[in-house]
Amino acid sequence: MKIITIGACKGGVGKTTTAHLLIEGLRKKGYKVLGIDLDYQMNLSKNYKRGKSLSSYELMTGSSINMCISNDMIFGSENLERIDSSLRELGSEYILAESLLEVHEKYDYCVIDVHPDKFKKLNINAYVASDFMIIPAVPDFYDEMSVIDTLKAVAGAKKYYKSKIEKSFVLMTRYRDTNYHKEIRSHIIQNIASYDAEMLNTSIRYDEAISEAISYGETVFTFKPYSKGSKDYSLFIDELLSNIESILLENLLEEFKEKIEIIKEQYQDKVLSIVLYIIL
After folding, report:
1. Has residue 11 got a pLDDT over 90?
2. Which of 145, 154, 242, 280 gives a 20 to 30 Å CA spacing to 62?
């Protein structure tokens, strides 16, 4: 199971919408996906029907993850707003990562939606547990700063909590093909160069169909499948999957090279002895 957190230090950037459409887009492709709402505003949860299950609050305070899953979702709770006071024990930053190990073989992907507060223990838990990070950003100056703040938080989680995030991806949302938006996008690309992050080629163009679909209890994929929003989010998911596949392949090749070197070191003396024996 690959774990993806959708996070940003600023609200109003399409974070929850992106999480929701990523979950549904992956499911549409046949993947088994677990969604987790770690935001006390619970906007992601509002898109799904909940059965009898505990919430992400109970998950983070000691309940079994299997008791918290309903329809392949772990729903949010208003109690998450005050959860930091309950997460004071040493090692509480690893609760989510350890819990997800129980369902690691059950799902292909896990998508986590977090609150914009980058320093909440919930966010740190998400960073520690995740393999990849997606940072949505609208093209304006404040979001440009928000992207850097989010990347700094991720870097801190890597340094102090051994987060396993391999790559962070920036996704432009509400994008228009104007000189100003192009300029902001270019600035962000330059500013994230020093972090282990990259700008996705796909941008989500401004499209009322995206928010309109939510008001009707649908996704833009089903509400207006030929709209800009539907096409852009589909392209985003395809690009993300391609990037993840490339990264995993690179990791496999590196592991293979390391094993070859170990084998060479172990057997080079024996091989040399055999060669000398044959020659002599």
Report:
1. no
2. 154
